[in-house]
């Protein structure tokens, strides 16, 4: 791979690995959870996507808005971000690890839920109708994808470190 492309890829991963999105994640996923509860129990179906999705898929799509964000929020509460590994006990490390898995599951769930909405909205409307929701949600679809990639990389690096410490006998 040419050096400029390698450099751009390294910068992308460094940006993705930063913790600068943590503050944004809370209100975003609380909002999605609130929408899931409201949309499931109180709201009438969204009229322009309901015919495209059909009743069964619409119900699945709405219900995905409850466990997806709930998994992310539970995972965030389990994590001890910023605590050095040397200061973490085995239960704390396990809790952090499981929190990452919950976050990953929630991010992937919401990526597909939001992507499905985008596709349905584009298919259901002619150009101009519902353009705001199509354009306004597109960054959130990508955001969920980036969060899933970021969390997956954290898990991959943790697994790699764990294998290396076991291989060299550095674990207790």
TrEMBL record:
The chain crosses the membrane at residues 21-44, 56-76, 97-117, 129-149. Keywords: Membrane, Transmembrane, Transmembrane helix. This is Transmembrane protein.
